[in-house]
Inverse folding.
């Protein structure tokens, strides 16, 4: 029987393991389900069919989570993140400095595990954004779009009026951070669901869990590129009928 191993669990062969440690943003399909996914720390062996079901369930739970989470203290989320991994905030970027395509899974993460679907946040230098979402179940569509603002190290999203559905698949606030010593990179960490999930599951391999629960900037978006890219995304992926039944 094909097996898969996932990080962050402590059970051994023959045990189901801790279902709360299921990887939420990864997918194994076709031949990939017959490959072993491993880390060097505390591996648990489970049947690949069970692993697939756990992954899909986790993604569905995340998609239905309440999208708006706000905190009285803006330093609190950063302190919670830094308690688990050595990152620093990147505050007060200009729109051209922040603009880019932020992706999960990133290329770095995809080298470690087979990817499942994708989440992409396109942050444009004119302070608009588009978020696309896909799984092996749902098609690659725009689930949210609107305007963004930056308050210190916190990116805030506000949907356009024609985004009328509840489950936008992306939260309203994200910390802008980088790993210490990697000043050329940018990560967005959702302050609500993903930060809590990271705290709960970062015990054995926080670096790996950080990649799972963040959006990494894979490329910058210039002002010249923004217009054609937005036009293409809207033409190919804007399908509001897919979401309006929610």
């Amino acid at each position: 029987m094909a097996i898969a191993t996932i990080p962050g669990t402590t059970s051994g062969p023959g045990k189901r393991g801790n279902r709360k440690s299921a990887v939420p943003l990864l997918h194994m399909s076709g031949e990939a389900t017959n490959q072993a996914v491993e880390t060097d720390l505390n591996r648990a062996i489970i049947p690949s069919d069970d692993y697939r079901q756990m992954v899909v369930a986790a993604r569905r739970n995340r998609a239905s989570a309440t999208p708006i989470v706000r905190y009285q203290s803006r330093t609190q989320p950063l302190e919670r993140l830094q308690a688990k991994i050595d990152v620093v905030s990147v505050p007060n970027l200009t729109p051209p400095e922040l603009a880019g395509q932020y992706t999960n899974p990133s290329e770095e993460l995809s080298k470690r595990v087979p990817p499942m679907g994708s989440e992409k946040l396109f942050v444009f230098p004119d302070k608009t954004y588009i978020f696309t979402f896909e799984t092996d179940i749902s098609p690659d569509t725009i689930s949210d779009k609107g305007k963004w603002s930056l308050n210190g190290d916190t990116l805030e999203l506000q949907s356009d009026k024609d985004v009328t559905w509840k489950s936008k698949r992306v939260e309203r606030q994200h910390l802008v951070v980088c790993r210490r010593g990697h000043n050329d990179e940018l990560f967005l960490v959702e302050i609500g669901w993903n930060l809590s999930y990271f705290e709960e599951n970062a015990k054995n391999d926080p670096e790996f869990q950080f990649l799972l629960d963040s959006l990494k900037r894979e490329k910058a978006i210039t002002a010249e590129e923004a217009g054609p890219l937005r036009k293409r995304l809207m033409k190919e992926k804007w399908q509001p009928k897919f979401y309006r039944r929610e």
